[in-house]
Amino acid sequence: MADCLFCKIIAGDIPSSKVYEDDYVYAFRDIAPQAPVHILVVPKEHIASVGEITAENSAVAARIFEVIPKIAGAEGLTGGYRVVSNCGADAGQTVGHLHFHILGGKKLSLEMA
Ligand code: 5GP
Ligand code: ZN
């Protein structure tokens, strides 16, 4: 997608601090971390949000959830971590490319909304 920030990051047109990459998935550090470890995991294919996951494209979502524990392990998040995906305006989604936040490295607040 020409006008998508995360597509530009995946393409290398905008620099990022990469923590993982394979043929389908890219992960990088959030520019404004909310926790000591704050990583965004995204599909290389442009999918707008969780709301756009379908039977046709869900394999990459499964792949993302295989990758998340690997990243958490590599980051030393032995005490646990949170995985969050904001879907749509009411949830506060600000970038329209599916992404999962990995948050950890401290005792996280239980506030959900
Ligand atoms: P959302 O609010 O859509 O759930 O999450 C978008 C996330 O992308 C935010 O946590 C924000 O800090 C992060 N972000 C926005 N622009 C950039 C950028 O240019 N580089 C990186 N690494 N993260 C970004
Ligand atoms: Zn995109």
Oligomerization state: single chain
Radius of gyration: 14 Å
Low-confidence segments:
none
Query: What is the mean predicted local confidence, pLDDT?
Result: 97
Instruction: Give the helix tally.
Output: 2
Task: Please specify the SSE layout and strand pairing.
Elements: H1 5-11, E1 18-21, E2 25-29, E3 37-43, H2 58-74, E4 81-84, E5 100-104
Antiparallel strand pairs: 1-2, 2-3, 3-5, 4-5
The structure holds guanosine-5'-monophosphate and zinc ion (ZN).
The site of zinc ion has 6 residues, from helix 1.
Written account of the structure:
- This protein is an alpha+beta fold and 113 residues long.
- The protein contains 2 helices and 5 strands.
- It has helices spanning 5-11, 58-74; strands at residues 18-21, 25-29, 37-43, 81-84, 100-104.
- It has a 5-stranded antiparallel β-sheet with strand order 1-2-3-5-4, with helices on one face.
- β1 (18-21) and β2 (25-29) form a beta hairpin.
- The protein is globular and about 35 Å long.
- The structure holds guanosine-5'-monophosphate and zinc ion.
- Zinc ion binds next to α1.
- Guanosine-5'-monophosphate binds at residues 5, 14, 16, 28-32, 40, 86, 92-95.
Name a few traits of the molecule.
113 residues; alpha+beta; 5-stranded antiparallel sheet; globular; binds guanosine-5'-monophosphate; binds zinc ion
Describe the structure concisely for a colleague.
The protein is an alpha+beta fold. 21% of the residues lie in helices and 22% in strands.
